[in-house]
Amino acid sequence: ADLVARGIADPERAAIGGWSWGGYLTLMELGTHPDLWRAGVAGVPVGDYESSYEDMSPILQAYDRALLGGEPKDLPDLMRERNPINFADEVRAPVMFIIGENDSRCPLRQAMAYVDRLAERGHPHELYRFSTGHSSFDIDEDVHQVRMVLEFLRRTVLNA
Question: Longest Cα pair distance anywhere in the chain, in angstroms?
Fold first, then answer.
């Protein structure tokens, strides 16, 4: 909103995107500020924080407990405010998801729960799953993903 107010960003072509925590922030923004965004790209996102915690590695669970002050299930008020899936029904912009099938940081099940929520209401979204985890570890795969993102943004933002 600040960039629009200062005349730097075009509100008709504003898109948001990020990977990992940036994917989490993308989904939070799309759901909590739906009027700001024309499109979103969520790479290896946290879409359902509570089920993500259940499926992540014990080391990452310990990190989250330290970060949050407890397990997500013990923090209902915080999860109500900070879990992207709770705002999925508010999303208005098309969303592209890029999800690693074997991701221990942002596990598949929780990301797909968010995708499924959009699909249940017929909301425009695209899904690309790749076979590795939090990263592809392959230059050709990375280039392929960037091309898909650029094509998605061309269709949803530039030509809309």
Answer: 46
Distance of CA 64 to the CA centre of its chain: 18
* Per-residue tokens: 26: 């993308």
For the entire predicted model, the pTM comes to 0.94
Alpha carbon of residue 73 to chain centroid: 21
CA gap 117, 111 in Å, rounded = 10
d(CA 97, CA 55): 19
pLDDT by residue, tens only, the chain of 160 residues: 788 889 998 989 999 999 999 999 999 999 999 999 999 999 999 999 999 999 999 999 999 999 999 999 999 999 999 999 999 999 999 999 999 999 999 999 999 999 999 999 999 999 999 999 999 999 999 999 999 999 999 999 998 6
